[in-house]
């Protein structure tokens, strides 16, 4: 897989997990959904940060 394709996928996954973290935060803290645990909200946030860092590293790597 070419690096530019991997960069696109990492960027898309970062935004998907960011949306999942925001949605789970709203469901958890505003609507008090009981079946949603805080650990899932934290996992979505950590995965979002991870894929954003991978995306940034690939952008820097391709532009140097």
Automatic annotation (TrEMBL):
Keywords linked to the UniProt accession: Membrane, Transmembrane, Transmembrane helix
Domain of life: Bacteria
Keyword Membrane applies: yes
Bilayer-crossing regions: 6-29, 41-62
Protein name: Ferric oxidoreductase domain-containing protein
Species this protein is from: Candidatus Aquitaenariimonas noxiae
High-level lineage: Bacteria, Pseudomonadati, Candidatus Omnitrophota, Candidatus Aquitaenariimonas
